[in-house]
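Retro notes (design track)

What went well: tokenization of the new backbones is finally stable.
What didn't: we kept losing track of which sequence belonged to which structure.
Fix going forward: every design gets posted as structure first, then sequence, in one message. First example under the new rule, 159 residues:
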């Protein structure tokens, strides 16, 4: 044999198709890359790192459920959050007689009331004392006292 020809067909270099702007990649006759060479010199693109920590999961849930969605109603288009639409859907199913939806709605309502009363325990206590004091008095409440009572009522209704 002469030195011009390789001994095996696998040793014959071939050029693989290349991506635009990159150097051609040489392959052996059997289609394999030369030892030490890769078919993807740029490598796989990195994935966005994502770790599902409770804080990130909470953030994702809140961003999805607080997203505004436009709904066409009889009064024209209105915007609701995803959580509002979900609650409206549960309420509709509950009112149509779907037992599990009714049960879930009542449980959510009870939990919301407990949270609300727990958050405003001090204000409710003050409001009850003021109203009790007002009912036990024989004379009508003064204007400043009525303003305080109404202020507490508004405060506890909003949140």
């Amino acid at each position: 044999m002469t030195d011009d020809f390789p001994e095996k067909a696998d040793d014959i270099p071939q050029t693989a198709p290349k991506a635009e702007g990159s150097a051609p990649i040489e392959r052996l006759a059997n289609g394999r890359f030369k030892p030490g060479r890769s078919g993807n010199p740029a490598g796989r693109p990195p994935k966005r790192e994502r770790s599902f920590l409770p804080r990130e999961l909470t953030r994702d849930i809140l961003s999805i459920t607080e997203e505004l969605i436009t709904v066409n109603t009889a009064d024209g288009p209105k915007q609701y959050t995803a959580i509002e639409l979900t609650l409206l859907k549960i309420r509709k199913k509950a009112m149509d007689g779907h037992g599990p939806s009714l049960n879930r709605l009542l449980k959510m309502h009870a939990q919301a009331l407990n949270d609300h009363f727990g958050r405003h325990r001090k204000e409710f206590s003050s409001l009850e004392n003021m109203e009790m004091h007002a009912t036990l008095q024989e004379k009508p409440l003064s204007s400043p006292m009525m303003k305080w009572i109404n202020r507490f009522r508004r405060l506890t209704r909003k949140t």
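Added context from the reviewer: Residues 99-119 form the longest helix (21 residues).
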